[in-house]
Design brief:
The structure is a single chain. With 289 residues, the chain is α+β, with helices and mostly antiparallel strands. It folds into two domains: 2-129 and 277-287, Roll (Diaminopimelate Epimerase, Chain A, domain 1); 132-274, Diaminopimelate Epimerase, Chain A, domain 1, CATH 3.10.310. It has helices at 29-36, 59-62, 86-98, 136-142, 230-243; strands at 2-10, 13-19, 46-52, 70-76, 105-110, 113-120, 123-130, 132-133, 146-149, 160-166, 170-175, 192-194, 202-210, 213-220, 224-226, 251-257, 260-267, 271-276, 279-287. It has a 19-stranded mixed β-sheet that branches. The longest helix is centred in the last third of the chain and has 14 residues, at 230-243. The N and C termini lie close together (7 Å). The model has no long low-confidence stretch (mean pLDDT 96). The structure holds ligand LBFN2T5F. The ligand N[C@@H](CCC[C@H](N)C(=O)O)C(=O)O binds next to helix 3 and helix 5. The ligand N[C@@H](CCC[C@H](N)C(=O)O)C(=O)O binds at residues 13, 46, 76, 82, 85-88, 169, 202, 220-223, 229-232.
Length: 289
């Protein structure tokens, strides 16, 4: 079967977009993994099926059709489902705009619920929803709630203290100790998180560069190390604000990732916005086996 696709990225977090506007495809995990395979397929950190919300197979998603015409059906490169993808929302929105299917501001449906998107100059801005601590009491009393062990960290054998945050999908944020070089951490294997998150976790490693500026590397659930993660940069900014003593801080933080720079706006009520670029790289046709 011939399958049209578009390849795109947001700060080099790259995706294979599959337009399936009327929801006729039922992609298996193996088909997704092959599309995302960088040697045998097109290659990407994830696969995004673009579907009319009303045609989504899941009843809870289809129920959002009155508020959002389009559903971002996001899959990780290993074929697993994920609730949300921040960088993916910008690439998804950019494809919809190119095709004349949306205006300058609209909502989309995701497995984490509705997300509002708007175009602002060269950037796409996504309202990423409301974040929460996985264990608010422990976070507030200890500052941390888990430990992360990286298999091959330079000079470091001790696990790092970390904080579990939920932004629709699960994250574990590590504030790197001063003596650890962010670029020295090797993330070829998934970091071990303790206690083990029931649905797995994306793991972010954060270094403060100065007021309002941090850098981050990430190991994504279902993928491996990626060059950016939109939900990840948001929780990195939230964790940084929390550790600096102001859990309900508002304002903008710039986050540098290997694939570029993103801006996170911390809003009242534990809401957060993400602003950054999105690029559509190529269109083509592949074969679905
Ligand atoms: N790259 C994404 C996150 C994609 C999903 C993640 N791997 C998960 O399993 O939760 C982003 O930009 O947020």
């Amino acid at each position: 079967m011939n399958l049209p696709f578009t390849k795109g990225h947001g700060t080099e977090n790259d995706f294979v977009l599959i337009p399936d506007l009327d929801g006729e495809l039922d992609l298996t995990p193996a088909q997704v993994a092959l599309l995302a395979d960088r040697q045998a397929g097109i290659g990407g950190d994830g696969v995004i099926r673009i579907v009319r919300t009303a045609r989504a197979a899941e009843a809870d998603i289809a129920a959002l059709a009155d508020e959002a015409e389009w559903f971002m059906d996001y899959r990780n490169a290993d074929g697993s489902l994920a609730q949300m993808c921040g960088n993916g929302t910008r690439v998804f929105a950019t494809w919809l705009r190119r095709e004349g299917l949306v205006g300058e501001s609209f909502a989309i449906a995701t497995r984490a619920g509705l997300r509002r998107i708007r175009f602002e100059g060269d950037d796409v801005v996504t309202h990423m929803g409301t974040w929460r601590f996985v264990d608010e009491a422990k976070a507030q009393s200890q500052g941390f709630d888990s430990l992360v062990h990286v298999d091959e960290a330079e000079d470091i054998t001790e696990p790092y203290s970390a904080l579990s945050l939920d932004l629709g999908n699960p994250h574990t944020v590590v504030a790197l100790p001063e003596n650890v070089n962010l670029n020295g951490i090797r993330l070829r294997r998934p970091p071990a998180v303790n206690p083990v998150p029931p649905e797995g976790s994306n793991v972010e490693f954060v270094r403060v560069l100065g007021p309002g500026r941090i850098s981050m590397r990430v190991h994504e659930r279902g993928v491996g190390e990626t060059r950016s993660c939109g939900t990840g940069v948001c929780v990195a900014a939230i964790g940084t604000a929390f550790w600096s003593g102001d859990v309900d801080a508002t304002g903008e933080m710039t986050v540098e990732v290997p694939g570029g720079t993103l801006r996170v706006r911390l809003l009242p009520g534990r809401e957060v916005e993400l602003a950054g670029p999105a690029v559509l790289v190529a269109d083509g046709t592949t074969t679905l086996v």
